[in-house]
Predict the structure.
Amino acid sequence: MIDLQCELPAFHLLDRGFQVFPLSQNSKVPLKDTHGYLSATSEHEQLFDWIVSEPKMNLGLRLDTSNLLVVDVDLHGDNNGRESLIKLSKQGMVMPSDTYIERTPNNGLHYFFKYQGKATRKVNVLTGIDILTDFVIVSPSEINGKQYKPV
């Protein structure tokens, strides 16, 4: 049985020119026999095959080939990225109001921006804030029953 909850958003991303890749159910781990974001595809047939083999897979988005950058704001442990965002806003630096945002299962936020450059992953650029240009897990993926959701 195909999980339409995963299928429809995934194909919509392909139709917009993005590349996606499969992650194991309830995880950020790539499906067996794939190479993570390097296996990302824009081909409907490949995506359909992955969905058939793992109907409840999570979904990853390859950022470098999609010309995207994600600002990942974490809110777990000592990593309070919201405090870092507040400090930045007091300095006059704010996120554009038309930014696409997803809420993560731990109540963090992913801010998506257009970007062209090399794939990189910079952790704790500021406390609780990561810069991602290689890959990110996206809606409707879920971890421990909590979904990634558009804000």
Remarks:
- The first strand starts at residue 19 and ends at 23.
- The chain has three helices and 13 strands.
- The first helix runs from residue 4 to 15.
- The radius of gyration is 15 Å.
